[in-house]
Fold each of these.
Amino acid sequence: MNRTTGSRLTRRLGALAVVTMAIALAFGLVFSPPEVAQRDAVRLMYLHLPTIAVAYLGFFITMVGSIVYLRNGSVFWDLVAGAAAEIGVVFSVFLIVSGALWGKPTWGVYWQWDPRLTSTTVMFLMYLGYLALRRLDLPPDVRSRRAAILGIVSFGNVIIVRYSVQWWRGLHQGQTLGVDTQLDGLMLFSLFLSLVAFLLVAAWLLIHRFRVAWLEHQLTRIGFERALAERRGDLGGGRVGEEAR
């Protein structure tokens, strides 16, 4: 059984993520020009928007993994779902914090009960609850089934977050990227470079977190099988003793 989470692939992926992130920081902080209205505060966009994409992707993988687990009981997909949720929650923290820092120079306050901000907080709390459910002291199959159901249901709130600025009025600006994107030139390139860098980091983290979870699962299974074998040995020894008497 492999007892490490590193491999040639992950080392190369990690190196690529570091290099890409360094280049993205250079473009986002130095080469990209300030925005006309927000000036240098717009540079938070290169952190804020990629974290949204990574969080969405992590929770989407959780939903897919949960569906597959409920269909065929695949431990692999159950662990993938849990690892992806952890990545999504971590990046949701960066999302909320960077949004608050960007909100101060833009709106004059760090926080408003804006539909996007409120639904994002609910999303974060729901997946935090999902992770807490995965830690409950329950039979593994029961715990995984309940977590899978919650992982599927929780994705409904991700959709609400995504379309909240279109469905309700609020302080939050509309969609930045799209057919009518407000960005062009170096700003758009810097944003996509940041997105690629964050996705590479997320992929590296996801692989390692899954491998840790797989090792934990293997150790738990081995421990259970050993305890079961010892129990059977005790029972067998007891029967031998009774027969001898």
Amino acid sequence: MTVLTTILLYFTSFFTLMNPLGAMPVFLSMTDGLSQKQRKNTALKTMLTAFLVLALFSIMGKYVFDFFHISINGLRVVGGVLFFVMGYDMLNAKISRMKLTNEEAQTYTDDVALTPLGVPLIAGPGSITNAMVLMGDANTMADKGLVLLSIFLVSVVSFIILLGATGIIKVIGSQGTKIFTKLMGLIVMIIAVEFFFSGITPYVRAMIH
């Protein structure tokens, strides 16, 4: 594959799993009491957190898992369960709300940006697993650099999407938001099933043999 094709493939996989479009309603609800500047800072810190977590796991994940004797299939199984629960809530248009007053904004903005927005909403089990798998499959330093570059590019695009979340939501409307949330919930649940069974299959085979 050419470099452009590889980056496009990596970018698409990360964008789908990080799902900044699906994160918009949650981001807006959790920053409802913030000013425009504070919301911008929260979006920036959210994506910086997500980028650093994904970059760290892509580089160090294999060693951490080897140290604790944890398999990537175990991550897939757990990620599948978490994704299914998240997707089920989205399918029922349930979005957790955390409205912040101006007085609370300065205290809680960092906490909200780190978690749950940065982790696990943006950098969740799926995107972390994807980072580790792609980095594990990269045979050269150039390929490994492309993985990190893809994570960075998706983080930049996701930051822009979160900044424009208010305008995007206004265009599609509240009903459109609900429909979009339900649709993304269905997709997330499908991804969850794929992750779960791809992770649990090796365990089942091991038990059979």
